[in-house]
Amino acid sequence: MPERDSVSWTSMIVGYNQMGRFGNAIQMFVDMISDGVTVTQFTITNILSACAAVKALDVGRKVHSFVVKLAVGSYVSVANCLLNMYAKSGDPRTAKIVFDRIRLKNTSSWNAMIYLHMQCGRADHALVQFKQMTERDVVSWNSMIAGYNQHGLDMEALTIFSSMLKDSFLKPDKFTLSSVLSACANLEKLEIGRQIHALYYNS
Fold it and tell me: What pTM did the predictor assign?
């Protein structure tokens, strides 16, 4: 291409992300900056997703500087991507700062904090955030169930799963069931595990 604009560069970044080639997406962003091409909100959300996927904290922090420079931090989509990047890249302090500054928090905002607390071994904090949510999606429930399961709190995982079935219109997905069946195995509740497997995998 004789001339590549912001749309062209961002399209390449999105394409690499979709193929799981996050390192290439990050390099494309670096080259984009070197060429002096204008960064857009859409560029930022996509490169932050790439940084989160490979825990590229240093690059993510540089992207954060563009967020400040372009004054797009008030956009929930950008703020959530920043929060997610810091949460998954091992900077819980900054993640919490970003979360606290989001005025109109949505489900993704809360989910990122639940994930962060579980990764830091603070299941009690995750539960507090979970209870504060006015709306939950499957990711919300999965984050709690998987988090409990990963930390050996298998009975708590089954309790949350039971609440999901009673209190939510959402249907468990393969990630939910994987964590629940793992909890059943750890607790040697094999009959319950077989019933769950038969109900959801054979239906």
Answer: 0.83
Asked if 48 and 82 count as a contact pair (C-beta separation under 8 A), the reply is: yes
DSSP assignment of 6-44, as one string? HHHHHHHHHHHHHTT-HHHHHHHHHHHHHTTPPP-HHHH
Tell whether the torsion through CA atoms of 196, 130, 143 and 190 is positive or negative.
Answer: negative
Instruction: Using CB atoms within 10 Å of the CB of residue 87, give its burial: 0 to 12 exposed, 13 to 18 middle, 19+ buried.
Output: buried
Can you tell me which residue has the tokens 């006015």? 134
Burial of 186 (0-12, 13-18, 19+ CB in 10 A): middle
Question: Where do we find the tokens 């709190």?
Answer: 153
- Helices 41-54, 76-88: crossing angle, 10 deg rounding: 20
Which conformational region is residue 90 in: left (phi greater than 0), alpha (psi within -120 to 50 degrees), or beta? left
Distance CA 17, CA 47 (A): 8
The per-residue pLDDT for range 35-72, each reduced to its tens digit, is 999 899 999 999 999 999 999 999 999 999 999 988 99
- The per-residue DSSP string of 115-171 comes to HHHHHTT-HHHHHHHHHH-SS--HHHHHHHHHHHHHTT-HHHHHHHHHHHHHH--PP
Look up residue 52 and give its amino acid: A
Asked whether 196 and 184 are in contact (CB, 8 A), the reply is yes
